[in-house]
Amino acid sequence: MYKNKKIGVVIPAHNEERFIGTVIDTIPDFIDKIYAVNDASTDKTIEIIFVKATQNKKLVVINRETNGGVGAAIISGHTRALHDDMDVLAVMAGDGQMDPAVLNNILDPIVEGKADYAKGDRLSRQEHRIEMPPWMVTPRYLQKS
Known about the structure:
Largest sheet: 4 strands, parallel
CATH architecture: Alpha-Beta Complex
């Protein structure tokens, strides 16, 4: 429980054998359920998730046999979390790009009733952009013909 709310974290993962174990291991103790969603990985992601599930009773394994992409994986996690009556859900990528130490900063506006949705951002502070490429590809639908 976190401030009297049941909190779940959905972790979509596709071919994340290098990172998924660490991501699961670093989820804060105040999280009630961890929904690790393997999105038809072809590496050892699902095997690592199953091992972690034997070590962490909060971990719920969801194995998608067909790759649906990150959106479908997140929906699978949310669907299960709703079934489990979670009050608030967070999404943390399976590749370790999100720092679990700041999860409470994302959750606070929601659990305190100040927001319905909160999202972290890596662009507002220069120190977060250091390792990001200085270019961005323009999606085709925005490109001039």
